[in-house]
């Protein structure tokens, strides 16, 4: 017989169990108790709309090798869990997932869910298709994706989300707070990720919860109660209850061993008190969930039931099922005075040396693609409206869906895995392809002059050229010697008449251009360089699978003028008979570097001067405004930290920018500066090194320079990842100060190595001064203002007075340890041979005299960048007279009318019920421009000249409730004494049904639903 | 703008999705289709009743750090999953878990579950408290734990499980098949683990499914259809659907990407066909689940719904929700002739060099404890019956529960983690402590001569000494000089009158012993050696927390005679006044080794001879039977493989015995052989080395030797794990053949390096010849039979002709890679200082002349080992006349009656409804003994002399159905032509209500429910 076990057992006899267990009914009926610390348990799941897996994979739960996550399980298991106890509550956030699930449910289940929503057990929070990023997103995309989610919730459930819930994005923007928060009608906004230094200070002075005024112009009229969580968006340590989470469960069956109710209650109370110590009022929120949790909702609720039961029996603190709405109402009822927060929460560092500023640039290609699609979607909806929405399709809806998903904080942010980035691109491409059909059909309908709302099968077949960026346009690369005309319809989505230069590739020099009236107009040929052709052919092969069969020889450039919300038509024809004279006129003058004299380029007021020997940019001269400024432009690269392979160091990666030294990129000298001059454009071509090519363009009618860069493949054979930046240096005495936009909207003052909210401890003097740039960045001194605008989201800074730096591309070999688990090393492959991804992009620069300011250019030209002219191509029949049978110019507005310079149409969209969604935006901030930062007016009757507006109602920004209702419900928060109420805020007045004139105050965006 | 992503997208436009998804209703109504291959999907979970976590931890889901498993989740989530589709089915196995869960459910939910059981959606399979081990378990424990589970199912649900489901145990016993299978009334038995060579052959000739006749004696009357799974008890590869399993789910939403219905259907069909190729009939079973799966049952059922729907749409094979019962009925209906299987499936190797024969010995201490408790439980239930079961307790139920759980295949098997082993011991101890009170109260009631069925508060306080094995018995270590008597009540749980020697520690030599009649009887004092005291004091300190305060000086031994199912009383008193003469008589003669002459010991017929110089055992002589045999006994150790730390090699561990060389243990010489001789006992003490101590005992009235060993702490400072074996070598010409018991019941012929069922490829000549020993092992030649009996489950073999080897203890430093994740390195600690665990155990040996055979000894003495005399201690008052006021002898049976020598009472237990559960067992196999292998009879009237049997019904072995009903339902399987039907099988006839005489044929066990 055994000794020890027997003895062991005898000792333990004291722990005799109680009698048999039985069914326990937990008391979960608790609501707020005034005198106690109320612990609001907020059951939630955070479901990334793509990250390590694609959105569909997350939804159905496939590809578990990448991540064990299945949103279908979450929603499937949630319903019975909520039905099991009516006190249980849950919030659901990401509508891209919810909509997928909803479509698959039986009607009976849908009705059950509707009851859960009606009873408040299930509450929709945030309510956009995704939890969008806040750094790399454009505000129009944020609005669109939120609207898409909110529309569905309104239609299916009749509900309006009350709360902003941006718990995961990597820093928080002003636009999120005031525009996507207050203007949407949210009562509060919650998030988790703020700078670790900021968080420490806020915990110390109990200012994690604030009243946030994100907009200088709209001030307190668009403020929102906002809370940063004390740590993250997860439960306190040891309170995780997913199926296999290893937090101790409550074992309350006295007939079993390990009964632990007292220990667990003590831990609960202690965690609650520790949070109460950094929180104002006696309400604290516990975010009970995290990424993709509640796959079996029961496991969480069972534990929370027990905690509520036993903690409340204990009585030291009070636990209850809650939602952020209930929490917000409790905060509001406490009548506390809150600190004011202005501006934003960028940049975000989660610890020393870990600035999440790399992702401002990560995946510049997809960031560019999203921006192009965003502009295209805006235009396509306009044309869809002009034609009349088709019930049977094609529609713009799939592009809307794809764009919405692409705003996710692991999508356009560039922090997803490569296969997921590919999925976003695929979705955008599918959406684009359908939207392209809408555009083609609408243009055909309009110019065939059939009924605008009832055009089913127009004859004209339009082609578009989404790959013009790589010199690929089959529609224009045609032989016109048979006498046909290439017809180009140029559509302008802006509300202003617009003049611009367009360019298309052509296969020979024998071409002429005529305008809508048939008049020959000036054009210019620019030779297509071999480098461009190589780039074109490689990528067409890589992505379309076959090399192009023809090679274009020239870019044909010419000026176009297009009415607001309308189009003009241009004709390209064989010009053999019109003689070589015109051709030689249009031919480009060549000029090469390596000469001692400086080179001045610029066909208009703006001149750029290059040094003759080095080919370096030296001077910026505007002959009109008399601005003259020394200017220098360079490239450099940062070497990403972490190449040494040590596990402890923080590497540079998809999220994090952690440079380990910066290295200038010297032009290698062997490539001469090449200047192409013509009547319309001057181009300066510079091969900076073997993998950076730059073209600077100056246009006759424009006072800015356009810089197009091709960066890549970034070499990594030395074993170092590299982050490529460009610096544009002037002599402006900018005094550490620069301005960067918030999601392409408001500009925010940035001061180098400084934070307004706390005493910054500088540990990353480069990465810690980077900010997201969506529209532009500028700086100024007493005499001048230097602005740079971008064509997509990038990271940027001003690291030296007078200088602007943009990060253009990143190729890294290490993962930065924030979950994506891949190095950001994008490639492009032909026949399984892969090279680093090249990126083609543009930025634009301009220097204005201080008294004029750059605001006007930034705002007007910024809109042109966002909404480029849309080109559609077709050919007429030989001998056909296009002009006779087709409308050649068109404006959707009254021909006498144009929007004021300070107003843009953000949305012009026919809804499924036939109504119109209209969004108008004032483009200027208070004080931004001496003439345009004023109240603007839009005459709707002239915007819709042929339609009778039967009804107009102003709504919240996401169009899911009447604006007046929203204002009525708005909570009025007390702020701390001594806090300035800010400048007087003006808002446009009500729209009178008679006049139908919309007033817009600076920075105001107004949303209307119209019926005709 | 970005190049590549844009292009990428364009390419992929072809994969346009279909329109929006919608709700899909899956067709799961399929039943068996005759012409097709039917794939029986059997949803199941395999829930270990303790392994890496304790049973309670598995149930509530705590300690997830050890393993992410929560049985509560399985059962919680199962109910809604079954309710969601009435075609879904599930089997549940382990009643220890199910009962925990059941007790915690509301009545409403219990009613729902009852409906699910009634409708057949939820079927209980196996139905014992656990899925017991089949190697280290005693058949009585197997019966008890099965009965406990089956009783509950019968009471709560009125159901009788139909199927044996031993899917995980590591090899399969004959007793499991015929006794716990056929005799329980099961229609089939399924399991997964058989030898890899056996499996390969069976796959090849389609003999994984057989008709198994496990008993030579009961033959076809106790056969059962049995199936070994083709691989394991899991689904085919890639068909796992736990929440985060990474098998591909069916993605059938055409509006999402990655639609994969055709691929998944193809994989299903291909896996089915590959299984059909090794299976007879067109029915195959897929075990859809594995360890602790279905934590969220929905995830499995959703996928299976889809498979059934789409596979049946496809039509190549036919899928259906099924259970092993449905599968068995389908097999039966196929009217196929099946191969016959006899004997068992031991030992089990899952691959070359990986024999799971280590666990036959792993944790010898807990194996011993289980066996002791098993015997105690049998006795305690008898006494509980005599007294009448108390509704308010104490009861034997918690010991029943603890013992039931301890039979689990990771409990008594020794393959659990250390903390789990501790938990089993704790449960046994708690159960024992309560049962001890039942025993004490019952004895007190009986001897106080109060009403036997209505005794509530007897005066006599009895103490028991469970730690006698380490010389610790506070009740006997008392000073009797005050004139009190130590009263010892000796209870005999066997149905025969019994004479035996008992021994108790006393603190001085001045003691005398009187029997029930008050007559002084012979006794013997044996000095307690310092080694025993050290062992005692260390372990009492280690496990009771404090050192004993007195030290006993002698073992007092004396012979006792006890009636069947009854007790005798003995009195120990101070013997100061009775003079030293008796004391000197009783004193022990000392004799030391190291002398040239041989030493002969033995107070009776049996003599053992030791060599004088070496102190080695040399001869075995029985003066009565004239047996004389050379005999040698040695110790050796195996060094466990895997100490080299290489990952690829198979280490020796808790499961696997993989020796890397064997090393003899030489007696170190410095410890002389010590012989203690007295009138009752002769003892030979041998200190084999510093960590092995052995005592050989010969008793006056007995013809066997008892060997007690203390092994440990096994040294490991050399870095080698060791497995300690003893070899007893005779000169018998056993011709490679030996016999080992099946779960303590039938003996099975073993032939070294040979398997009956296939042509064995020998790769482990030691480990591959090990078998589990529960009762004993023997071998024979033409003249003699050499038997060794054990006191617990151990591994053993005969590696050389004439020799028997037992493995006694194992201490290993490597994990063997089968999941437990710990090295089997048991320790015992005092004040945080730990030493290797020591094990105290016994084995017994005897050599009989061939014509007598050893069967009689093995069976009769085997019952005595299993059911030792139960000692209860108390003291009388000084001057009190115990005899006058107390019953001093008692028998539960008629005083003139005793059970025949070939019958034992396995169960005598009052049920909760007041009825009696009686199990009688014939102890002999056909041909085992010339006199006793015959039909036996038991006269129930004399077994229950004072009670009137109102009703008697014979039941299945687990007492959950009438035996006649069971026989009526039994499926009669066709076996392959040419298969012998085996010897004629006799069974006892029906019990006539008048006579109440039970007949028992050899090996028959009959179970009755009696009402009085």
TrEMBL record, chains A, B:
Domain of life of the source: Eukaryota
Cofactor(s) it depends on: Zn(2+)
Keyword Protease recorded: no
SUPFAM superfamilies in the cross-refs: Families 57/38 glycoside transferase middle domain, Galactose mutarotase-like, Glycoside hydrolase/deacetylase
Reaction equation(s) it catalyzes: Hydrolysis of terminal, non-reducing alpha-D-mannose residues in alpha-D-mannosides
GO molecular-function term, one example from the UniProt record: alpha-mannosidase activity
Keyword set, alphabetical order: Disulfide bond, Glycoprotein, Glycosidase, Hydrolase, Metal-binding, Signal, Zinc
Cofactor binding annotation: Binds 1 zinc ion per subunit.
GO-annotated biological processes: mannose metabolic process
Gene3D superfamilies according to UniProt: 2.60.40.1360, Glycoside hydrolase 38, N terminal domain, Glycoside hydrolase family 38, central domain, Golgi alpha-mannosidase II, Golgi alpha-mannosidase II, domain 4
Catalytic activity, EC: 3.2.1.-
Signal peptide range: 1-18
All residue ranges annotated as the Glycoside hydrolase family 38 central domain in the record: 354-428
Assigned protein family: Belongs to the glycosyl hydrolase 38 family.
Name of protein: Alpha-mannosidase
